[in-house]
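This follows on from our talk about sequence and fold. Go ahead and set the record down below:
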Amino acid sequence: MAKAQLDEVDLEILAILTRDAEITNKSLAHRLGLAESTCAHRVRALRERGVIRDTRIRVDGAALGFPLQAIIKVRLANHTGEKVTALFDALVSIPRRAAGVPRRGGRRLPRARRRAGRDGAA
């Protein structure tokens, strides 16, 4: 992919959005001294060119009662479809499993999160 040609305004947009991805277009335009329509056009162009790929949020697992998070990497000695399916089924059945992580073969392997007990121990 060719390097994107960015001017000073594009770089300032990226700097602001990097610090605050939830800023409104109106606030962003005001900070940059641009018309709202111009600002929206520039952000849209940065997205279309692939410079801005996405925006994300980070959820505090502890605030939801999940203070412990485990990401598990498993390497199987025997990669038959039957063995992989058995492992996948076993992992999916884990109580309080919160999310899956995409892996090879289009399967979603689970990511386990465990709620702490009343004493705070996981």
About this structure: The chain is about 35% helix and 15% strand. Strands lie at 68-70, 97-102, 108-114. The chain has a mean pLDDT of 79.
